[in-house]
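Hi Y.,

Following your request, here is the sequence exactly as I used it, all 397 residues.
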Amino acid sequence: MSKKESHFLRIIHILPFLFITLNTAFPADYRDVVINEIAWMGTEANTADEWIELYNSTGSAIDITGWTLMAADSTPLINLSGTIPAYGYFLLERTDDQTISDISADQIYKNAMNNDGEKILLKDNTGKIIDEVDCSAGWFAGSNSTKSSMERVHPSTDGSSPGSWGTNDGITKNGKDSSGNDINGTPKSENSVYDGSLAVTLLSFTGSYSDEGITLHWRTASEVDLLGFLIYRSISKNGTYNKITPSMIPASGYGTDYDFIDRNFAVNEKNWYRIEFKYTNDKREYSDPICVEVRTEAEPCEIELFPNYPNPFNPSTKIRFSISGLEQSKRVVLKIYGITGREIKTIFDRISPPAGNYTIEWNGTDKSGMEVSSGVYFYRLIVDGRVVLTKKMIKIK
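Below is the corresponding structure, written out as C-alpha cells. Let me know if you'd prefer a different format.
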C-alpha cells in the first residue's frame, strides 16, 4: 500500500467520528429547557387528555434522555427520552397520541395533574433542576371552562412567578383534539402570549443602611440578552450620576436577586442610585432612581411596612404599616405597582399623618376601578417622594 493510499484510508476512518461529534447534543444549563405550556385542564373532547410542552431555548440540540418531569407529589412522574432540537419543542401527551390528533407526540405519559395546582420540576440525568413551575397554591393561568392552556410569556422568565404566564388568547391556536375541535393552545408552535420584546423585568430595587454600608438589592424576573449591571450614584435625583461599580456585575441569564454594597456614600445627604442595564447589542437602559439617606443623628422617622394578609389573595387584601416621629409637612403615600413597574393605584396619600398603625384594604382594582388580573404585584410606601419600603403580593384566581 502506498503512502498516499494509507493516508486516504486514514481520512475515511476519521470521517464517521467527525459526523458523530457534530450531531451530539450538548448538556443543558438552568432554563436552557423550560416547561413552556401546560394543558392541566385537558381538552374539549376529554378532560383526561392533558398535555405538556417543553421548549429548548438554545441554539443547540439537547438530549433529555434520563431526565425527569415530575410533580412534587410524584403524580405525574415522567421519565423522559429523546432529543429536543435547537429552538424546538417537545410534546408530551397523556395516555395516547390522540390527545392532539393531528400532531404527533414526542412522548406519551400516564397519570393526571391536579386541577387545583401542582409544583412541577424538570431535572436532568444528574438530578439538577433545569426548570420549575410552582403552582402548588393554584394554577397561574389556563381555563377549565374554555379548556384553554397555560402559556409561558418568555422562556427566560421565572416559571414560579404568576406574571410569567398567561391564558391562551383564543385566537392563536394550533392542533385538533380527539374529536376534531380546535385546541385552545399552541402545542409545538409559538405561544399566543409570547412577548419577544421582553428584556429585563425589574421586580424591585431597594436600598438599606447598616454598619457595612448602603446595601442595594434588586431582583429581576427576566434577563433577555442582558450582559450585566452597572450602578451609579448622585447626591440629587436629577443631578450627575457617577459610576460606583469597579466593573460590570454579570447577569445570570434568568431572573434572580443581586446585592451591591456602597461604602463611600454621603452622610447627612441623600444618596440617589440607579442601575444601568447593558445588553448584547450595545443597547443600554436605566432603572428609576431610588434614594437612601444616612444621618449621624437619630432618624427622625421610624417606618414599618408589614406583609399583606391574606397573601396570595382574591379578591382583596389588607396592607398594614406604622409610622412614628414623622416631621411636619411630610407626605406619606402607599402605591400599588405591577410586575413591570407600571403604577396600578394609589391607596393612601396624606400629608403629616398622625403617628400610629394603619391598615389599608386593596380591593384588587386599578385607578379606573377595573379588577386587575391574577399575577405578582408590589406595594410601596413612599415618604417625602422617596421609596422607603417595598413588598410583594400575589393575586390569584
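Helices lie at 3-22.

Thanks again,
Q.
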